[in-house]
Structure formats: C-alpha cells, structure tokens
C-alpha cells in the first residue's frame, strides 16, 4: 500500500513528511548525557530553526511545563524523572510547529497538572487547524478530547466516527463500553464477578 501525510508520500519523500510532523512515541528515547537545553537545541538544528528563535521556543515550552531555565540548562536528562523526560520529548515533537502531530500514549509519566496542560494544548492545536493523531488506551481522555475515534481490533478497523455516533450506534454509555463491546471475546463484567467469588 501507500501512505501520504500532508500530500507527501512517506516512502518517496520521507524528509518532506518528517518536516511537517511531530511524533511522541510511547517510550520516548532521549540522549541521556545531554541537558534538555542541549537536546532541544539539537532537535531545533535538525529542523533548521535559528538559534535565537529556538531558545525562545524552548523557554516558552519550559514555562508551559514548569521546567525552569536552570533545570533545562544544568541537569542532564539522565537525572530527570520519567515525567520530566516526557515533557522534553513532547517539546521536541512540537518545537518546529508541525502541521501533523502523532501522539502515542503522551500522558505516560506526566503528573496531573502537566497532563491537563497537555490536553488543553492538544485541543488548542486542533482548533488552529493542526491534525492530531492521538493513540491511547485511556479511553476517558480519548472521549473528552478527540473529535473522531477509530477503534482497531486485531489489525482491522471495527469502528470509525465521532464519540456521539459510536455511543448511539452501539447503545453504550461510554467509549470504554463501546470498545469492550466491539473487542472483548467475553463479558468482562461476568469474568470480574466470577473472579471476586
């Protein structure tokens, strides 16, 4: 098959695709021996962001995620907690202001305030016209922030629509129940009750 992002073929023109996307993997790897400041400036250089502009953007994201300039500049990433590293990975994905953002379990490791900030940012970016692809098993978050939901089971799409459409079509009360109805091979409630006996 083929795939295009923003009109660019991912096989024929991968560099053009990489220029317009941001990606937060489920387990983001960072260069642990660098400071966050060094790492983010490296990422900025890869995207040809001028140094002064890069510094301003990094400071802005630092403020957004409550990472002080001292923390960004003085601590190696190896000394960061998982949540702090996740903030740096998210910043690196958004630093070049991409048109399309792929987020795979982006809340992983974030504290409640950072998670709320990121959810608000995602909504704001979508309202600006950015395309956000949000992959997660935390369905109550998906239900609150996603305009369109695709449920994949064993490699096939089993549902595609707005949350409201999926709830109506399945007669379920929540996206979690929709997912369970479409993907579970047995009644999970019955299994849980049996286990509790």
Question: In summary, what is this structure?
Answer:
This protein is α/β, with parallel strands linked by helices and 197 residues long. It has helices at residues 14-20, 36-46, 51-64, 69-74, 82-94, 112-127, 139-145, 163-170, 175-183, 188-196; strands at 4-5, 8-9, 21-24, 100-104, 131-135, 149-153, 156-161. Helix 2 packs across helix 3.
Could you characterize what this model shows?
The strands form three sheets. This protein has a three-stranded parallel sheet with strand order 3-4-5. With about 200 residues, it is an alpha/beta fold. About 25% of the residues are buried. The chain starts with a strand and ends with a helix. Helix content is about 50%, strand content about 15%. The mean pLDDT is about 90. Helix 2 packs across helix 3 and helix 2 (about 35-45) runs parallel beside helix 5 (about 80-95). It has helices at about 15-20, 35-45, 50-65, 70-75, 80-95, 110-125, 140-145, 165-170, 175-185, 190-195; strands at about 5, 10, 20-25, 100-105, 130-135, 150-155, 155-160. The protein has ten helices and seven strands. Strand 6 (about 150-155) and strand 7 (about 155-160) form a beta hairpin.
Q: Poorly predicted ranges (pLDDT <50, ≥5 residues)? A: none
Q: Output the number of helix runs.
A: 10
Shape: globular
Q: What's the total count of β strands?
A: 7
The structure class reads alpha/beta
Q: Give the biggest beta sheet.
A: 3 strands, parallel
Radius of gyration: 19 Å
DSSP helix fraction: 40-55%
Tell me the β content.
5-15%
Spell the H/E element sequence: EEHEHHHHEHEHEEHHH
Oligomeric grouping of the chains: single chain
- How is the largest sheet built, in terms of strand order? 3-4-5
Beginning-to-end CA distance, first to last residue: 50 Å
- Would you tell me the overall average pLDDT? 91
